[in-house]
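Box 3.1 — From sequence to structure: Membrane protein YphA (DoxX/SURF4 family)
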Amino acid sequence: MIIALWIATGLLALLFLAAGTMKSLTPREKLVEKMGYMEDLSDGQARAVGILEFLGALGLVLPAATGILPWLTPVAAFALALTMAVGTGIHVKRHEGFVPTVVLGVLALAVGFGWIFLG
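Predicted structure (token representation):
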């Protein structure tokens, strides 16, 4: 079961690492072209979301992999789930599809609880 948890954690981390890197390094004007919801965010907010996703991805893997403060892995997962909850709210407000953010949020919750109970 721990192997499945590591696979889910790794995939989730890769997704958030890619999304966070893109959002933190790409100018918001270019992001708006691809992601309409970025219109609702300022430049600083868009960059902050990217940085939070990037750090969350690192927090999913590094503490558990190194054994240094491993309790941070579920904390990172729950923080990413909270980020996805806010993202879902933005998509609902804009009448956009919100299923991907819900799926990522639920997966983050599952990973968080997995590390609490199995890790």
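Summary of the box: The mean pLDDT is 96.
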